[in-house]
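Sequence and structure are kept together here, with a separate record for every protein. A complete record is shown below as an example:
=====
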Amino acid sequence: MPNDFERLCVAMVQDQIEGRGIRDHRVLDAMRAVPREFFLPPPLQEFAYEDAALKIDEARTLPQPYLVALMAEALLIGKQAKVLEIGIGAGYATAVLCRLAAKVYSVESNPAVAAKAVATLQSLRCTHVQVVHADAAQGLPDHGPYDAIFVNPSGAAFLETLKPQLAVGGRMVVSAGTDPAVRELVRVTRTGPDAYHIEDMADIRVTPLDVDAVRLTARQAAQPPGRSADAFTAQAIADACERFDAIETADLAPLLDRIGSARVVLIGEATHGTSEFYRMRARISRQLIERKGFNFIAIEADWPDASRIDSYVRHADHRPSKWSAFARFPTWMWRNQEVRRFVDWLRAHNTDVADRDRVAFHGLDLYSLYNSIHSVVGYLEDVDPPTADIARRRYGCLTPWQSDPASYGYAALTERYQSCEREVVSMLGDLLRKKQHYAAQDGERFLDAMQNARLVANAERYYRTMYYGSRASWNLRDSHMFETLKSLLAFHGPRSKAIVWAHNSHVGDSRATEMSRRGEHNIGQLCRVEFGPGACLIGFGTHSGSVAAASDWGGPMEVKPVRDSMAGSYERLCHQSNVANFILPLRKQKSGDVLARLSQPRLERAIGVIYRPETELQSHYFQAVLPLQFDEYIWLDQTGAIAPLGIEMTEGLPDTYPFGL
């Protein structure tokens, strides 16, 4: 019967490594085979399978399991490979490499560190590793060349010294960057005697888990709050906020006054599955449409799916389709009763409005690779059949990955496949060159086709970069959403105004969060830079309740209990205010006391379509400065899960309803 550590190891590989896209079965087997607790002293062994690096002592840190697996897979280590490791550390990565390669050399500058690692490796019977006490910065040229070089974090300074020690065709993975907490992972491939190819693969967090802080936080969470500085801050929140009893009766007039003449209002959510967030967002949007003349809603969803909604709410004809709107994971995010009620309201609102003045409904995201291809080809079949044939051939490059576009990113990294970038970018170029001709026939349909073609081009890049979780994939996605928003504002006219629905992590200014340290930006930051005070950013938060979410990507939706917010977080402060529901203005306050008190970095919670309460601190909290992140903050202390709709035709809906098509 497996012991607790064995079960934790299996779960670690499944959730932290395979669940993040590592697919090499040899790497997965190696990660399962190495007992991580062997490399830790007894007081730290309970944390052995946490998703974090663990600081053992001043000289040794046990690396994050996912980082070891990511680097090992990127090296493409064959069974007969000879591998050089720079810096042995605790020896954990060495043990993994031993299960992948025929011979491993590890060079370590610190003799005490080397001796401790050797003893552990011998106890695990890692017999084909040779540990050398030498200057790690110089590598080990006497035993080279190497098929792979594994450089432990902070090894970029001696990159040039190590490159000549690679065999032609060999690979080296090394981290670079100036921020000690966030490193840029780089792969170097030797392509010839004096030629190297360098790839920016990912941005990684290497800050070790502070075990003492975790234990302290757990103790604090179990204690009742005292009259501390946080208690005074909570009281300041209670004094400054605008309270309301229910979403339906909340007085939004002060909020609308503060929004003023803003052209773009971005309304967030702290989860992707909380009913109250959707309902309050819909209520604010109705007020903005009715009282301030906003022209369209743009949501964190795929363009083709939202186009089905747009046709419905604007009473327009739609092109027959083989697919159902919002039918891919996570279906509940937009296919739910809360969105249905707003969509029905918007359709009714547009009923007696002239066509040109009807409020539109658009998607900003780029996941709909193949539905977008279908839409582009369908459009061209109607307006330019010869170009439609060209589009089919060009987009055919992506056909093998139609059922799983994320696999395209994996395939594009191997030598067997080349990327489809040239073909899909050429298709977008053809559409843009014929813009005047196509738009003259039907401006709305051309906008749809052009946006779908742009989406395919950006999605192709996204799936190539997302495989390693690089900041480039996040930035590409949010840049795509921002460029789509700007295109829509231009299409709807110079006086048009937009409402954006997206998660807090996209809506809040990323410069006020730890995202900025990783080199990430988001649509909130881009809107503030572009529109200044003409952009209003609204965030949400909650303390506890329930949420609709999955445990793994692609898994079934579950209604999960939301754990009470953690001590020291913004959410705990709001809960301690003892005000159940409120709006807190953050751009301007009559008294600066509350803003000053909130302006120190704190933890903030974010739950997406995945919720793992068992690892909540690592998985769902990040550092932020709330008054710099949002202009308004809406608090709902107790919240419940959204009510999903089924994928099949929903009983009682009209035949033209988009969720039932």
Q: What stands out?
A: Residues 227-273+536-640 form a domain with the EreA/ChaN-like  fold fold (CATH 3.40.1660.10). The radius of gyration is 27 Å. The longest strand covers residues 166-176.
